Amino acid sequence: MGVLPHYYVRCCKALSKHPNFTKIIHRSFYKNFVKDDDTFLNRLKNVYKSKVLPLEKQYLFHEFHLPPLTDQDFDAKPMVLFVGQYSTGKTSMIRYLIEKDYPGIRIGPEPTTDKFMVIMGGDNEQSIPGNALVADPTKNFGDLSRFGNKFLKKLNCGIVNTPLLKSITFVDTPGILSGEKQRAQRDYNFNQALNWFAERSDMIVLTFDANKLDISDELKEAIDVLKNHDSKLRIILNKADTIDSRSVLRVHGALMWALGKTIDCPEVPRVYVGSFWDQPYRNDVNRIMFNDEENDLFQDMKSLPHNSFISKLNHIGKRANTAIVHAYIMSELKSRVPLLSRIINKSHCQNELINNLENVFAEIQDKYKNLSEGDFPDVKNMKVLIKLF
Fold this sequence. Notes:
Pfam family, one: DUF5600
Radius of gyration: 23 Å
CATH topology of the largest domain: Rossmann fold
Protein name: Dynamin-type G domain-containing protein
Largest sheet: 8 strands, mixed
Strand content: 5-15%
Distance between the termini: 14 Å
Number of strands: 8
Shape: globular
Organism: Aphis gossypii (Cotton aphid)
CATH superfamily of the largest domain: P-loop containing nucleotide triphosphate hydrolases
Number of helices: 19
Number of domains: 2
Helix content: 40-55%
Structural class: alpha/beta
CATH architecture of the largest domain: 3-Layer(aba) Sandwich
């Protein structure tokens, strides 16, 4: 690894200084990109492959953080991830949005969706099992293979011929359970898989049933994963037509109180209240409000394809900042341990680095004032990963 090369610092320290990115941000240039999607994506790919990817490879970024981006990641349609406890209406909501059933759909009051369901657009409606999905080079799900065959058995893709899915992709997740016994029966790490999808989603829809607001331990853990993506989070208080107006206010307040103890973010996520399925309202006293809330949510989703260019641009910028910080960390760690010591007494050196990692982070922040504290990785996770080397 060696000392951090001046070339990488100069080229990657701030993407906004790169000529291509300056043009992209410029309003008139962005308008030209909207007219020619391929031009935008090709230039974005080129900036990543020529400036960011070499830095990631040099300092083992992919072993510690995220896998390298592929062309399929850049070409992917905007993705909406649906998360919530079982029987909160996630699957019914997706069916309402696409206006038809999709292959593999299961709806019921019991925990019906036990798989990660990817719902995509296509001419030939079909169901694709997980192993075939990750093996398809035209889709951006190949990296899911690292979760193992047991997870792939719980992964499925439904191809549906409907106008909405021509510009967007939905992901339905297994209903989050409330019992420790049921949770222990999962054969894969649910939170790691959830984080994989959350990282790549443009919007995350967290659903709650107005009739049951209990937040289980597994849901708390899932929310803890999602709060790292709080800007994408949208909260749904579903089935609000089953209670009266006064109860809607009380339930909404109770939900905010419960989430306030769980979601630790400075901004309040948007909450949509209504009944998001294709059945008539059971109590239509709040019909006007429900219709307005539904329209606001659908307009929010409708804007995703148009804003996907900015989302990809922001993602590359965020990723580059994280890679730069990681490069400084790895370079500093290596400089603290002589080569001979690494060969003779690897275990001792490893433990010494792990024990002093907090001090290393603090010294790097003090030395390089341009680095943001928010771009530094979690110390505990970093210690675990260092032990693997």
